[in-house]
Amino acid sequence: MSRNRLDYLDELEAEAIYILREVAGQFEKPALLFSGGKDSITLMHLAIKAFRPGKFPFPLVHIDTGHNFEETIQYRDEMIERIGEKLIIGHVQDSINEGKVIEQKGKNASRNALQTVTLLDTIAKHGFDACIGGARRDEEKARAKERIFSVRDEFGQWDPKRQRPELWNIYNGKIHKGENVRVFPISNWTELDVWNYIRRENIPLPTIYFAHQRDCITRNGQLMAASPFLNMDEEDVITRKNVRFRTVGDMTCTAAVESYAFEIDDIINEIAESKISERGARMDDKVSEAAMEERKKGGYF
Amino acid sequence: MDILKFITAGSVDDGKSTLIGRLLYDSDAILADQLEALHASNRKNDDGTIDLAILTDGLKAEREQGITIDVAYKYFETDKRKFIIADAPGHIQYTRNMVTGASNADLAIILIDARKGVVEQTTRHSFLVSLLQIQKVVIAINKMDMVDYSEDTFNSIVADYQKIAAKLKLTDVTFIPVSALKGDNIVYPSTTMDWYKGDSLLQHLETVEVNRDNTAAHARLPVQWVVRPQTDELHDYRGYAGRVASGAFKVNDKVTILPSGFTSTISKIEMYDKEPAEALAGMSVTVHLKDNIDISRGDLIVNSAGEPQLSSAIEADLCWMDTRGLDTSLTYLVQHNTKTVRCKIREILYKVNINTLEKDFDEDFKLNDIGRVVIKTAEPLAFDPYQENKANGGAIIIDSRTNVTVGALMLRQSAE
Description:
Number of strands of chain A: 10
Oligomer: heterodimer
Structural class of chain A: alpha/beta
CATH architecture of the largest domain in chain B: 3-Layer(aba) Sandwich
CATH topology of the largest domain in chain A: Rossmann fold
Low-confidence stretches of chain B: none
Helix content of chain B: 10-25%
Radius of gyration of chain A: 19 Å
Largest sheet of chain B: 7 strands, antiparallel
Largest interface: A-B, 58 and 73 residues
Largest sheet of chain A: 6 strands, mixed
Mean pLDDT of chain B: 90
Strand content of chain A: 15-25%
């Protein structure tokens, strides 16, 4: 072993910082998509390392479904205050009010699918040419094929059959007007890598990632947080459970897992031994085997 | 713990996806819900066992056609190492996708069907591996179960392959007889081939030494971004941010900025809140210089003790990756590290028939063609020969009409 064999977390960090700086160097008007989830929080931390003592060369953008866990919004606002960067919010409610999307009905109604429209409108309104996101290739098999710089046409669509070749660490960010690029700096990280990095760097997270008591109902075999956003009927029985969340999304489609992991070490142990992958706790991927691919083609992150 | 990046290449039906599926399945890298989806799928092998290939076939079109179209990345780890697999398509029409996957690999696994032995595609995949300078090669001779686990069959394929390896100067080749379908020598040593004394594929991957750190090469830092806060308290702060491509920089090292040729001395190295003594290959750093000189994105900071070639006419190997053929009358863009300039392909020296390795003097450079060319750039590039320093010797060609990446260049030498 030679002297500079970097630890794998150092290597992943250095790669992600390199990608963030490429975005800064290649695009006129980039943005960092911030969901309040651990992956985008990790990105924000990496951006601090990439650009300090300067300011970020991009704003943070949050697509707000209005069906948030309140802990996420509280975290977001405190964090923005602390780092002193610009935040732009795109509201799904605005898209509904403008008649661009229609609220789903029925028991499994969710705003998750609607946020694609709000995202595309926000990109168009501000003229963003690159959007940095926290997607990882280990999450899902359509994502496993996506490039680090992934070009979207003016309808926000991803064409999996016409991806640009991407060689070495040379990322081609050249686009036509109206197109934009989605950039994924932590493509090569696994869920466990993200958690190990959060622990190493001591990055604060929204409290819903840790075990807490919450009123839940069971839907399609999964635990959902009881909330005013969930259409419930008399068949739904509320039970109080010790749970935590593995992803932070719209409250209507983010399932909880029963857990007593109160500390980050407990979470890492739990994941290392876990037998359910992270997106397995997202009901929106369960619809069909090709669900993610279809949504990505439509402009979803 | 470190990371090993490897690519798998093989032709359609060599069982490549099954091999990766087996590797993940037997090393317990498949989670319960993925396994559930696997069991629920109606694709089964002839004997009714689960078709492990489903684990890697990502796109709907691929599942429909039962082939791999684009590179899929897979992640798993054992107690010894973390692995990133680039599962690349083997068919000739997807050569560009294989080149994409191969460009970042430390090791290549090339599959050979034991029933068919060395075929044209084996030669093509091996040629690409040698062109992209992947250090280590594993020849996995698969479907041994279909040839009665015959040692003679294995030995004769090894002998055939060694001729190709010699021709391509592939010096580090390991041969492993496997059955991805039955699980022989993938994770667990085979119980049916006691004549084979070597490691299983996973044992080999866990222990093979790769030199990815590139510290011995000359020090190169492509500038990505200039950090200038321009606040009252940091009025004079000016840091050059980038990822060290190769070698090592220390404080007080004399450096040259290319292409300008200005020289200075490193005064400070920063990594956010740390000030490491050295900036080593692979690290993303911000460096400060003693002198206030004009440096911007696209410049290359090098150690003055070992300067690269600086030229605007460069001989290079070219892999063409677009359905529109190469047009020598057109002006393209070339992107080399963080620098992008206009270029033309001044001359096509020859093409290589990648199935036979013969030279071909046909002037028509089409999709998936590979050959030797001379490029002329609008400004000089500061490069090292790809053979000596991959990190400063690779470049891409972009068609400025479509903005698509149309070519991969492995730079060789100045042609001025």
